[in-house]
Write a structure and sequence with these properties.
Blueprint (H helix, E strand, L loop, with lengths): L1 E6 L2 H9 L8 E4 L8 E4 L1 H4 L9 H7 L4 E3 L3 H18 L2 E6 L2 E5 L5 H16 L3 E6 L2 H8 L7 E3 L5 H5 L12 H9 L5 H5 L3 H7 L3 H10 L16 E12 L2 H22 L2 E10 L5 E12 L2 H18 L4 E12 L20
Parallel strand pairs: 2-4, 7-8
Antiparallel strand pairs: 1-6, 1-7, 2-3, 5-6, 9-12, 10-11, 10-12
């Protein structure tokens, strides 16, 4: 069995350890509410006002004028995250960290619920943080289950009950089903995961073209063969992003920002002595729709020119698919390997400003 562990309101919880006088008060970790900042996370006291991640901080302040806004301290959160996952590894042999605040654990044979309770207790007692867990036979169901009883709950889905557990839930609860997928399925008359699971091949193709639709349908049926892969958290991904003071549509300005990001990513990769095979761009539009596009290369790269060359092509393709200004733009490199390799196009080379479109 597999457990998905999700730290409850992680950034806010860490801030409350640093500022215990704020306990019980509505705390929002995010940007400037007087500008274009976005909520990273909110304490449960703030969530009672309807404040949620990815909401604009200005809207969060409108909903709760008494909210206390704290700027994110990612280095501090990374330190706490490391403590959590070191603790989890003492309790389980195979742990796959997919973010600072979430990951998958392969549970030992036997009483899965008891094993999950032991992990949850260890995190609470040794790191003083709360986590919610979902336990199931596959990753996708475990992830959905971990969100069912928050904060601090454990939801167990028995083997063979995956499809029945997922069926009544809204499509949006399925990982990989974003706002656009949800809208396309709604137009096809599909609103629940069970209705998606029941679609035949032709109906899936009409509603969601390409392999993505077939994959989502399989997961809606509780079928997800991905194993838990043990991988150090610090080697998963390096990323950088920026929320602009005002929406940016000028291609030259986006390219300039992208080159700066590529330089920062290359510097981070260099400090860690790693390189990565997958480059991904992240775009958030004024309506808060977020789109990502990625490309996996035949060889790992660590130089800024190659990173930006790939990211620039992905950005250009995305803007053809959906033109318009961006509220946020980001670039990441993942699929990291410890042994640094030559660039895909030869020896590492600096950015010279060329190559942007």
């Amino acid at each position: 069995m597999i457990a998905h562990l999700d730290l409850d309101a992680f950034f806010a919880a860490v801030e409350l350890h640093r500022r215990p006088q704020l306990r019980g008060r509505p705390v929002v970790v995010g940007g400037d509410p007087a500008g274009r900042g976005v909520v990273a996370t909110a304490s449960y006291a703030a969530r009672r006002y309807g404040i949620r991640s990815a909401m604009s901080c200005a809207e969060a302040r409108r909903r709760c004028p008494a909210a206390i806004f704290v700027r994110p301290d990612v280095a501090h959160y990374r330190e706490w995250s490391g403590r959590v996952w070191r603790t989890v590894r003492h309790e389980a042999s195979v742990v796959e960290v997919v973010g600072l605040d979430e990951g998958y654990v392969e549970l030992p044979p036997g009483d899965s619920e008891r094993a999950a309770i032991a992990i949850q207790r260890a995190v609470r007692e040794r790191v003083r943080l709360s986590c919610s867990m979902g336990v199931a036979a596959c990753k996708v169901v475990a992830k959905v289950a971990s969100d069912r009883d928050k904060p601090g709950g454990i939801t167990l889905v028995a083997r063979g009950e995956e499809a029945r557990f997922l069926a009544p839930l809204p499509v949006r609860a399925l990982p990989g089903a974003g706002p656009r997928t949800e809208e396309r399925l709604r137009r096809a008359g599909v609103e629940t995961i069970g209705e998606l699971a029941a679609l035949d091949d032709r109906a899936v193709e009409r509603a969601l073209r390409g392999s993505h639709g077939q994959l989502l349908r399989q997961r809606a049926r509780g079928v997800d063969p991905r194993p838990v892969r043990a991988e150090p958290a610090e080697r998963l991904q390096v990323s950088t992003e920026r929320t602009f003071p005002s929406d940016v549509s000028d291609r030259a300005e986006l390219a300039a920002r992208g080159r700066e990001m590529a330089e920062r990513l290359a510097a981070t990769l260099g400090r860690r002595g790693v390189a990565g095979r997958t480059v991904t761009v992240k775009m958030r539009y004024p309506d808060f729709t977020t789109v990502t596009r990625g490309r996996t290369l035949p060889a790992a790269v660590d130089d800024p020119a190659t990173i930006w060359s790939v990211a620039d092509a992905l950005l250009a393709r995305a803007q053809i698919e959906r033109p318009g200004a961006l509220r946020l733009f980001g670039v990441s490199v993942s699929g990291l390997v410890a042994d640094r390799q030559l660039s895909l196009f030869g020896a590492p080379r600096p950015l010279d400003g060329a190559g942007s479109r």
